[in-house]
Amino acid sequence: MTSGEPRSALTAAERDRLDAIWGAESLSALVSVTDADSEHDAYVRAKREWYDLRGKELAAAPEPDGLPGVTVEIDGHTFSVHGITHAGTDEEGSVLREHVSAAVDRGATVYCEQGIRPLYLSGIDRVCEMDDYRWALATCEELDVDSHLEGFHADHDGPLAAFGIEGVSDRFREAAFSLIESGSELYGEEVSRSLGAVAASFLTGHEERATARNFTSFAKSRRAARDPGRLHDLQVHYERTFLPQPLEREWLRRHDPELELVTHARNERMADYAVAHNDRAAEVLLIVGAAHLPGVRYYLERHRDGARDLSGFALLD
C-alpha cells in the first residue's frame, strides 16, 4: 500500500478491497481478486472499483500547498515527484521555474523527464535531464515487432507524438476531444463531460485503457496547462485511473509491447535513474508528465520498501 493517504476515509471492507487490488501483481491474480470470468473482465472490473475507492481515499487528503506532487523517503533522502502537463504554457513554466529555483537554492537536485528541461528549466543549475526516452527507444529497437518508430532516432527530444506513436486515429481523437472541450465555456462542463464520454466510447481501445488517453485526461490536462492551480486535480485523476504498475504494464504489453516501453516502462526507468544518481542530496525532485506520476511513485516506493534494487540498471552509451 502506498503512504500518505488517510486510510480512515475508507470502511474496513473498502480498505481490504483496495489492498487486495494493490496486492495483485498479475492479471491472473486479479481474476481471483475480482471473481471475474477472464483476465480481460478482471482488468475492467478492477479499474472501476479502483477508480471509486482511490477517489474516496484521495478526496479526504488535504490539497497540498505550492506545486503538488507526492513524496517518498528512501534511506534518509526525500524524493518528491511533481506531475505537470509539459504543454509549454507560460503559466506552467513560471510556476515550475519558481518552485525548482527555490528547491535548488536549498541544495536540492532535480531530475526531469526527457524533454522538460529544455522546455522549462534550461539555465538552472542542478537540473538534470534523464534518459528515459532514449532508453525506451533503444529498447524498442531490440523488439521483434512491427514498429511505430521507424525513421525516428533515440536522441530525439519532444513529446510522445514526435516519435511516431501518434497516428491518424490519435489525431482524430485529439481533434474530437478538443472540439468538445472548447465548447465547455458555452455549454458547461457537465455537457462536455457527457459528450466526451460518448466520444471516448467510440475512440478508446485496449491501449487507451492502459494509457488514459481519454476525454477526461485531455480536458483536465488542457485546463491545468492554462491554470497550474488545477495540477492537483489532474494528478488525482491519474492516481485514480491507473491500476498498480504490474497490472497496467502486463495489460499493455499484451496489446502493444512497444507502446508499453515508451509509456509505463519509462516510469521504472525514471525512478531507477533518480535513485542510482543521487548519492548526496537530501532533497531530490523529479519533474515528470502527470500521467507518469503514479508509476514513478510506485517504483520509488518499491525502492523504499527494499523490494527493488539497481542490479539491472545501466546508463546508455
Helices and strands, with pairings:
Blueprint: H1 12-23, H2 27-34, H3 39-59, E1 70-74, E2 77-84, H4 90-105, E3 109-112, H5 116-121, E4 127-129, H6 132-140, H7 168-182, H8 184-187, H9 189-203, H10 206-211, H11 215-226, H12 231-241, H13 245-255, H14 257-262, H15 264-277, E5 283-289, H16 293-304
Parallel strand pairs: 2-5, 3-4, 3-5
Antiparallel strand pairs: 1-2
Helix pairs in contact: 1-3, 2-3, 3-12, 6-15, 7-9, 11-12, 15-16
Describe the structure.
The chain has 317 residues and is α/β, with parallel strands linked by helices. It is built from 16 helices and five strands. It has a five-stranded mixed sheet, sandwiched between helices. A hairpin with a 2-residue loop joins strand 1 and strand 2 (77-84). The longest helix is centred in the N-terminal third of the chain and has 21 residues, at 39-59.
What key phrases describe this protein's structure?
317 residues, 5-stranded mixed beta sheet, alpha/beta, 16 helices
